[in-house]
Known about the structure:
CATH architecture of the largest domain: 3-Layer(aba) Sandwich
CATH superfamily of the largest domain: Glycogen Phosphorylase B
Mean pLDDT: 91
Number of domains: 2
Order of helices and strands: EHEHEHEHEHEHEHHEHEHEHEHEEHHHH
Largest sheet: 7 strands, parallel
CATH class of the largest domain: Alpha Beta
Radius of gyration: 21 Å
CATH topology of the largest domain: Rossmann fold
Structural class: alpha/beta
Helix content: 40-55%
Amino acid sequence: xxxxxxxxxxxxxxxxxxxxxxxxxxxxxxxxxxxxxxxxxxxxxxxxxxxxxxxxxxxxxxxxxxxxxxxxxxxxxxxxxxxxxxxxxxxxxxxxxxxxxxxxxxxxxxxxxxxxxxxxxxxxxxxxxxxxxxxxxxxxxxxxxxxxxxxxxxxxxxxxxxxxxxxxxxxxxxxxxxxxxxxxxxxxxxxxxxxxxxxxxxxxxxxxxxxxxxxxxxxxxxxxxxxxxxxxxxxxxxxxxxxxxxxxxxxxxxxxxxxxxxxxxxxxxxxxxxxxxxxxxxxxxxxxxxxxxxxxxxxxxxxxxxxxxxxxxxxxxxxxxxxxxxxxxxxxxxxxxxxxxxxxxxxxxxxxxxxxxxxxxxxxxxxxxxxxxxxxxx
Length: 378
């Protein structure tokens, strides 16, 4: 039985990367792998209870966020577990996990590259690149845009970076239709007259919800029945609420907080917007497409991998809230075009981004990667 050790900073249930790790861990467990999931688990709610209830091993790595102390603790754990593969997710785990994995002589080290922080400081970029080239046997980027960034900026070897996109479980549609659109709106005290613009995501600076709020303020007077639905929670919430009050639109914005099931909220929306500064490969866009919503996204890394402008969605410039406001204002005036965008989005996710495809590609990579086979034969 092969052992895989999956190391991530946090197992918070509200993160896209964390959700993919959780689902992949369960899939590999069902396939007969012995799966260990290690996280610093500094945020709640986490996947810890759910994973352990299903028979997976979850390890809490006590950390004070000092890599000089974190690395020796991780080395000790790895020497005890003796995994065949160490799969590290996200910075800084790629750094600490790469160094610890080499010290512990783990046969195969792989990193999982997701959101490529476009504001990463030069020292971190340099360190990331050095560790990638010196410690790792292979890397999995969640999109081609993400691969391009890490190859260009951190100097990852292009021939060692595979691309495996996120996938959506389309059986989730059964959940989508359990709650009707009208029931979803009633629960939020919205009427059929309201035009609901919404977004999903943790309230963090990189998710850039402030730009969406500014754009909404520009269109609110022209669409008095419009409402903005922000689904998620995080450290930026107070700042976003303050901005809404400054712009005199607090009464038109609904902050739902963190939600375990996004589909009732997507059901209530008319238009989905993702204003992030960068993404890996947005699961929320896939979810919006599954609900047959027209999608508007920022023209940036990870989003333009998914959206073909004017075909399955619309792109806007991050520098211009007015451009986003204009796009939102125009969509209700063109219902046929809007419906066409939504249909094309649904077709995109159903044909290209299913969980079954994602699982098959991960399994094939983990079982057949030349880099892995080379090290496991040593």
